[in-house]
Amino acid sequence: MTDIITRLKNVKKFQAKRWENEDHWDEINDLLIKELDDILSAEPQNTAALINIGAIYSDMGENEKALEYLQHALKLGSADKNLYTNLAIVMVYMEMHPEEYHEYLETAEHYSEDPLTFKAYFDPQSQ
């Protein structure tokens, strides 16, 4: 378990470097997805890994795939603020009705961020 925690901490650190190395954006995302897939192979119900891979797919514009991972973490009972925030972000990008994602934003306010997860990037100007 500690090995998985260490790996998730490293994923979180490495994902932040994507923004500093945009020339290598795709390669970094591929490495992050491979690492998270490996973690999920060992622990299929690891909600932190599910939330993070969902955030990465959202950042890549693959919102349907992101939504699958995030909904899986939701079904497993995650109480992570980043899960609910990321669900709302993905739903905005998928142009769903505001009532659908506002509920997730309101729910997010009742939770704390898991230190092993991160938020998907949101650009309100992209809409």
Automatic annotation (TrEMBL):
UniProt keyword list: TPR repeat
The TPR repeats are found at: 47-80
Signal peptide region:
none
> Which SUPFAM superfamilies does its entry note?
TPR-like
What this protein is called in its record is Uncharacterized protein
Task: Supply the source organism for this entry.
Answer: Chryseobacterium hagamense
